[in-house]
Recover the amino acids of this structure.
């Protein structure tokens, strides 16, 4: 059996002077596969993401990277797992050109050689932009010159430029229109296929979850109510909350000559 890349073990978390917002949550992230965290507002999804990125520490339990606890392994975690945030308008520094934005992980992780540092940064940035379907000349422009979908592609380029093993994407499509969401789902699927990337996806969109993730964890009120194979969980949910989530997905009207 493949050892987990990330493991969440009996994790509880409470914000200062508040009640627990996560209650004994456990799951594994398998290398090369996609895992989705789904649930309504207040389910604890974003708190879990912050714990998995090392931005918070559990009140109880552990988050493990390659079987070892995270504290003291923050640099290894950032090298292995890169985030993609929800809002492409606020996640990119408007004062910086795209080349500086995309190259930031290379600089902060010390992945550029001492000699020919600028040339290597240009090469790596150009490759990351090509991988997300943007021209190399985009590197010389500023975020405000791009549409929302293009900005999210820039954010993806920044996330993959250092060759991470996993992406942790927190509602990466929710701020985009439908047509752009479809194109970016295809792009994420392609990045997973060509780069062997592991994906941890936080999303309320079960259609996207079914498209990109083999495993799903359903959260309600900070507790895991169901988890397992995505097709099994969404196709035949056992918990009432999961059934309500599935029933809330909009259905397309099927005409006689328009098979779904």
């Amino acid at each position: 059996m493949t050892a987990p890349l990330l493991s969440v073990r009996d994790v509880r978390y409470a914000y200062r002077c508040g009640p627990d917002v996560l209650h004994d949550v456990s799951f594994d992230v398998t290398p090369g596969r996609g895992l989705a965290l789904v649930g309504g507002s207040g389910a604890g999804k974003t708190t879990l993401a912050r714990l998995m990125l090392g931005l918070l520490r559990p009140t109880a339990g552990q988050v493990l990277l390659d079987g070892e606890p995270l504290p003291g392994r923050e640099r290894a975690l950032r090298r292995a797992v890169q985030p993609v945030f929800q809002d492409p308008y606020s996640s990119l520094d408007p004062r910086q050109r795209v080349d500086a934005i995309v190259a930031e992980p290379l600089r902060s992780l010390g992945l550029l050689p001492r000699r020919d540092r600028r040339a290597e940064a240009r090469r790596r940035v150009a490759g990351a932009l090509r991988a997300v379907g943007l021209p190399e000349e985009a590197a010389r422009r500023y975020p405000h010159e791009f549409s929302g979908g293009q900005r999210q592609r820039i954010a993806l380029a920044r996330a993959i430029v250092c060759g991470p093993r996993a992406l942790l994407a927190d509602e990466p499509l929710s701020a985009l229109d439908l047509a752009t969401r479809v194109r970016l789902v295809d792009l994420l699927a392609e990045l997973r296929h060509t780069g062997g990337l592991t994906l941890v996806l936080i999303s309320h969109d079960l259609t996207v979850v079914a498209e990109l993730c083999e495993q799903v964890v359903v959260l309600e009120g900070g507790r895991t109510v169901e988890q397992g194979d995505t097709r099994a969980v969404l196709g035949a949910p056992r918990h009432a909350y999961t059934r309500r989530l599935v029933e809330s997905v909009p259905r397309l009207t099927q005409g006689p000559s328009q098979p779904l």
